[in-house]
Design a protein that fits this description.
Structural class: alpha+beta
Largest sheet: 3 strands, mixed
Distance between the termini: 28 Å
Shape: globular
Helix content: 25-40%
Number of helices: 12
Number of domains: 1
Strand content: 5-15%
Strand order of the largest sheet: 1-12-9
Radius of gyration: 21 Å
Length: 417
Amino acid sequence: MKNKNSEISSSFPILLVCLALSLLFIGVAAAGGPASEAPAGFDNLTNGFISQSIYDADRAVFEKPETVASGLGPIYNGQSCFECHRNPVPGGNSIISVARAGHHDPASGMFVPAPGGVLMHVHAINPAIDLNIPASENVRSRRKATSVLGDGYVEAIDDATLLAIANSQREESNGRIAGVVVMVPVVEAGNTLRVGRFGWKSQHASVVSFSADAYLNEEGVTNRYFPVENTALGKSVAEYKSLADPEDERHSDGFSHLDRFVNFIRATKVPPRDEKLAATADARAGEQVFQRIGCGFCHVASIQTAPAGTKINGGQYQVPEVLGDKVIHPYSDFLLHALGTGDGIPVQSGGDSTANKIRTAPLWGLRTRPELMHDGASATPEGAILRHGGEAQLVIDEFLKLSPRQRKELLTFLSSL
């Protein structure tokens, strides 16, 4: 490994760095005891967080479309969680995208969200509701819905582990690769801050925060964490709704729909590898290429969750035994990076400096995605690779040096994820 004051200029030092990072992040949480692999599968079976019967019942709520009578709208993007998280099983990814918009303040140059908020809506329960985005909101972006499979394990990663990844990247790459940690509010803990990890901007840190936000902003259902209805581009839609806020209430079993969503997500298994393809000589060689050229700097292969019993999310959640001390293979650092593909929309708690940064896309389940990158504009893994720039430029330079055989091996490895 080169001295940290020198440039990374060959593949061999990059390989050593990536191997060192992999060992570090498997071991960061090791104090909790022996780690085991998190269960993987696209089989609609629980990981053990809840029983199979409860999992099935919660999945049914996750899949069930909302109606106006149950609180849908008045403005929304989808009628159910399943609508945007369904491929190849409930909780998976989607080709559906949502729009965000805003503009830059003429005086300060700072980003300003569109009236009513940065997220745009495409559906309304009444045709009188105007959803046309004003021409003044000329900073626009589309983002694909991300998979929530395995997010219970991602939630259980200790903040210190993600901070260690960020620090090691900067040191080992001489500052050329520098993932940004975003501290975001945990709504169920009175907006206590925690390291973000969910969403294309790492704008959420807990499954509860993510689910409650999506329930309001994507389906239009107010809940105990977000009890105020959205406006349609700044205009009230109160006259079109009939239910009192919050609309998502606990039922006779003691659980609200939001509670069901959270339990379902925490009980999902992580996306599995295509084991048959992964065992081939090309895939094994491709994994070595992946690490050697530096992809593993950001697409971290292995991370260990916090020990069982660890209190996270501002003390509101204790990592259960089934999610604690587990090794996962997300191929992500869950940090924000400047890759030249940013959409110009900052995460609120990160400020304008995050506008053109994007979270490292987790590569687990990659083979199930027909459209890649945050906007779905890349049709193939090779196309997605070649869109990388900025911090990833040294890695792309190495990729361009690969022989046709090495490229084939790398792409075979990616096809096994």
